[in-house]
Amino acid sequence: MNSITITPVSSVKGEIHIPGDKSISHRSIMLGAIANGITTVKGFLRGEDNLSTMKAFRSMGVRIDDDGETLAIHGKGLHGLTESSDVIDCGNSGTTIRLLSGLLAGQSFFSVVTGDQYLRKRPMKRVVEPLVRMGARIMGRNVGNLAPLAISGGALNAIGFESPVSSAQVKSAIMLAGLYADGETSVREPSLSRDHSERMFRLFGATVETFSSGVTVRGGVELQAQDITVPGDISSAAFFIVAALITPASELLIRNVGVNPTRTGVIDILISMGGSIELLDQRQVSGEPVADILVRSSQLKGIEISGAVVPRAIDEFPAICVAAACAEGITTIRDARELRVKETDRITAMANNLHRLGVMVEECEDGMTITGVEQLGGGEVESCGDHRIAMSMSVAALIATESITINDIECVATSFPTFYPLLEQVSGR
Ligand SMILES: O=C(O)C1=C[C@@H](OP(=O)(O)O)[C@@H](O)[C@H](O)C1
Ligand SMILES: C=C(OP(=O)(O)O)C(=O)O
């Protein structure tokens, strides 16, 4: 297991480009594979999670050419996928296994999907239950809640589903199954999660209607191939935004970042904490809002975070916890129970790691309370196999009194293989 030791820096400066958005990259392969014609994708994220999705579709007979810059996905049409000759390994990727399960529920062949030791602990009932209601036969460990899942799909019936959690993975799995259902399938969620599927379905010509916190998809409509440009991932940019905010004398321009309003909770939260963050040159690319983000070091203050902003910032909480640890006063995070079922339990992981650096953190079932400190201490912390924990703690190390060693950092390749070279670049090392 690799570790890294990071020493404090005096400032974070420069201009960077962030790699492609992970959520949009997954969806471009999935929709490209079942569309008619050749879909091209520029800016595709070559992280482990997206490579798992690519491999899964190749195993179902989809030709995907990659010249190192652009992907060309040779779509097979709505009913052209073929049975994989082996178990489909989704690696560490919750998005792959859950969205794929929705798609496989509509196929008239048999599939088994599984993943690594972390993914095999994450709850699948949230997608299995509605997909079974639509007519798929799905079996899995723990009464169908844990992977491996065995899926026998076929003709589906449309349902109206009220999801108890705000989850784009649940919503998107049902939307994909809905393409194969007889009639109109709708999903409602407590508050709106990321809407990349809604946007991309529309781009490919699906019949989709959105309403407040919900979506309806019509079955049986063929999709048409598209040329897609994937913007930079705001979830990856978040580590650099926090790095520039908490490090003195910093100014960082982050180019070409997706700023879809269902993803910008992190910016709203950090601005409320007193962060100097400006969105420049806002534009639309492939149906998604994009901007350059200018960040300057700021004195942050503690705030209360709860409610509808939480799903809009769900993957950024580890980075937000680091900002809170450096803020003046107390930050409370509530309504964030979902953090307990990510790659690791992100509430406990961040509480334990920040504790080791001398920060007072109190956990509660759906969140935590963090009391900011003037100076983070040094020490040794654990990624817990979770890319976002590893990267957050690496950012914390930039301003600690002494060096911090982060253990087990291979997981960073899940979503951001070039994270450490970029961190070196902006640190002037
Ligand atoms: O649909 C997606 O692309 C994602 C949805 C979110 O998960 P949930 O749907 O479980 O909240 C997020 O945490 C994940 O990184 C990507
Ligand atoms: C939770 C995440 O991804 P997934 O659910 O796709 O594993 C993440 O990237 O933070």
UniProtKB/TrEMBL annotation:
It comes from the Bacteria. Its main location: cytoplasm. The active site is at residue 315. SUPFAM superfamilies: EPT/RTPC-like (SSF55205). Phosphoenolpyruvate binds at residues 22, 94, 122, 169, 346, 388. It is found in: Cytoplasm. Residues 7-420 form the Enolpyruvate transferase domain. One of its GO terms (molecular function) is 3-phosphoshikimate 1-carboxyvinyltransferase activity. The keyword Cytoplasm applies. The keyword Cytoplasm applies. It catalyses: 3-phosphoshikimate + phosphoenolpyruvate = 5-O-(1-carboxyvinyl)-3-phosphoshikimate + phosphate. Transmembrane segments: none annotated. Pathway: Metabolic intermediate biosynthesis; chorismate biosynthesis; chorismate from D-erythrose 4-phosphate and phosphoenolpyruvate: step 6/7. 3-phosphoshikimate binds at residues 22-23, 27, 167, 169, 315, 342. Keywords: Amino-acid biosynthesis, Aromatic amino acid biosynthesis, Cytoplasm, Transferase. It is an enzyme of class 2 (transferase). Its EC number is 2.5.1.19. NCBIfam families: aroA. Belongs to the EPSP synthase family. This is 3-phosphoshikimate 1-carboxyvinyltransferase.
